[in-house]
Amino acid sequence: MYYIQSQVNQETKAVSSVLVRRGNEWHGPDRMFLNERHIVLIEPVGTSSKVALLIEDDKKGQTLSV
What's this model's pTM, rounded to 2 decimal places? Predict the structure, then answer.
């Protein structure tokens, strides 16, 4: 599972987005519990989308940035 996190460059104040693999956070979670009553929508990611390409790069061990 992945999610997008915004980062601000303190010198230029430019905002960039980074794709983060779930589990790589500082607290190192090893699982996630979802309440199915709160899931509103599940949407597939297109194979040529930016997110899909970033996930593929992650699988190859490359740096992730949006």
Answer: 0.53
